[in-house]
Design brief:
Layout (H helix, E strand, L loop, with lengths): L6 H13 L2 H8 L3 H15 L4 E4 L2 E4 L1 H30 L2 E7 L1 H18 L3 E7 L2 H9 L5 E4 L10 E15 L14 E5 L5 H12 L4 E5 L2 H11 L2 E5 H7 L6 E3 L7 E9 L6 H15 L1
Parallel strand pairs: 3-4, 3-5, 7-8
Antiparallel strand pairs: 1-2, 5-11, 6-9, 6-10, 6-11
């Protein structure tokens, strides 16, 4: 009778795939290369098929290996997540909530929601991940997040995820510095949008083509970089009216009129389909909904 593979061996196999070679995986894991070779051989004997093809350039998944990797990836992540959560609870009552947000809802809601959540659950460690809609849903499906907040923006929820709609938020174009006398952006304006923005790409391109056909669109990896370009160098960015009104009225950003273009976004809370929403996730979602109605 064949024995079941050990969890440690499955995670080692994933590291070999991620690193692309036994040599690099051994360095990352601080184990010997023969140890990884032995683990790989045991897995292949357990499955009854070759999982990796080796060459001088590294390793490559076989057809069976690809199927094996897909099957164990989410399962091992979920098991490791459960172990971490239980260790935290036994070590001192600490619990954990992992929240993913695209940049727009993160700025709209996170500070106020987090303040209320921390008051109610002071011994819960909250981890926040910023990513675009597709990346967030992939992380949620892979059990790396407990919930995600984003617009749809082409990233369909799917039958495996539950989805709750929040109210729509209004967005406007803002710029630091002076506008032209006509109240429109300069003819060769520079536009900036963070890559994790779940609203801005299509809207900004539409407006840029209308007002400034020779303008330039710069993408950034964070909202902080976006904010600096807007504030200090006069770039134009699509920002939430709620964010500007609440957090930065003293910066004197100027709103740019966009006649005939309606810029709004509806955000959604995504969770995995489960018999019941975990209490911490349910509490966070309730605070989100309360903030919007307040």
């Amino acid at each position: 009778m064949k024995t079941m593979p050990k969890l440690a061996h499955l995670t080692m196999f994933k590291d070999i795939v991620h690193c692309g070679s036994l040599h690099d995986a051994a360095k990352k894991l601080a184990v010997s290369q023969p140890t990884l070779s032995r683990v790989l051989k045991e897995l292949e004997m357990s499955i009854g098929a070759r999982l990796l093809e080796r060459s001088n350039r590294g390793v490559r998944l076989t057809a069976v290996g690809e199927l094996f990797y897909r099957r164990i990836d989410a399962a091992t992540n979920q098991l490791l997540s459960a172990f971490d959560e239980l260790r935290g609870m036994s070590a001192g009552g600490e619990k954990r909530l992992r929240v993913g947000m695209s940049v727009d809802p993160l700025l709209c809601y996170l500070p106020q929601v987090l303040e209320g959540f921390n008051r109610r659950y002071p011994h819960t460690r909250v981890t926040v991940v910023e990513d675009g809609p597709e990346g967030l849903l992939a992380r949620l499906r892979n059990c790396e997040l407990d919930l995600a907040v984003s617009s749809l923006n082409g990233a369909a929820g799917g039958a495996d995820l539950a989805m709750q709609a929040l109210k729509s938020e209004r967005f406007s174009l803002y710029q630091g510095g002076d506008l032209t006398a006509a109240g429109q952006p300069p003819a060769e304006a520079k536009w900036v949008v963070p890559r994790s923005c779940s609203v801005g790409h299509a809207a900004i391109r539409e407006i840029a083509e209308r007002y400034t056909p020779h303008g330039q669109i710069v993408e950034t990896d964070s909202f902080l970089a976006t904010w600096c370009l807007v504030r200090r160098q006069g770039y134009i960015a699509l920002l939430s009216d709620r964010v500007v009104a609440h957090y930065a009225p003293q910066l004197h950003l100027q709103k740019i009129p966009t006649q005939g273009i309606d810029i709004s976004a509806r955000f959604y809370v995504f969770t995995r389909h489960e018999p019941a929403t975990p209490p911490l996730s349910a509490a966070f979602i309730h605070l989100l909904q309360t903030l919007q109605t307040g």
